[in-house]
Task: structure prediction
Amino acid sequence: MSGLKLYHYWRSSSSWRVRWALDLKGVPVELVPVSLLDGESESPGHVARHPLGFVPVLETSEGLLTQSSAIAHWIDETFPGAPALFPEDTWSHCKVLQLADIICSDTQPVQNLNVLQMHSPDPARQKEWARHFISRGLAAYEELARPTAGEFSVGDSLSWADLCLIPQLYNAARFDLSLSQYPLLARIAARCEALPSYLSSHPSRHEPKP
Result:
């Protein structure tokens, strides 16, 4: 399959997850940047792709797909085989989803820019808010991953859970939150950071040039 387009923002953690998944699978895709800072994401053209004006959006021959976890499932089923984003056995698959949802549902949304701005116009209060919710989310992930972790979050294979975790750790660093209280997450991060797919999907590789 060819002709895929991914509408993304370079520093969006949701976008990074999907870039990483596509890169890991070796799936060619055209990356189309959508700025979240200058109103482009709220333009009629992008809202027609995603009613909330969010990224990522994957354009396929079947149509448009939003929400990173839905996109990840589509990628894994459309391009089956190793490396898999989700384990084959049901229990491990659900453990991956459990950890991913800690990030995608309970942590990342409440530290997004639109939420921070609604919370307060004061950058110091925004940072306090973000650190509170990120630290709670990472603590929960650390506890829930302890029984399943091997080299990565669930066993010894990279999974969708890791692809959700690492961008959230990047966000944590942006808000000056130390990983010293999350030794398991720091260990998983060190393994992920050595992977070629991590490096090629990293925000620094996709930051717009001035």
In short: The chain is about 50% helix and 10% strand. The first strand starts at residue 5 and ends at 8. The mean pLDDT is 95. The longest helix spans residues 123-145.
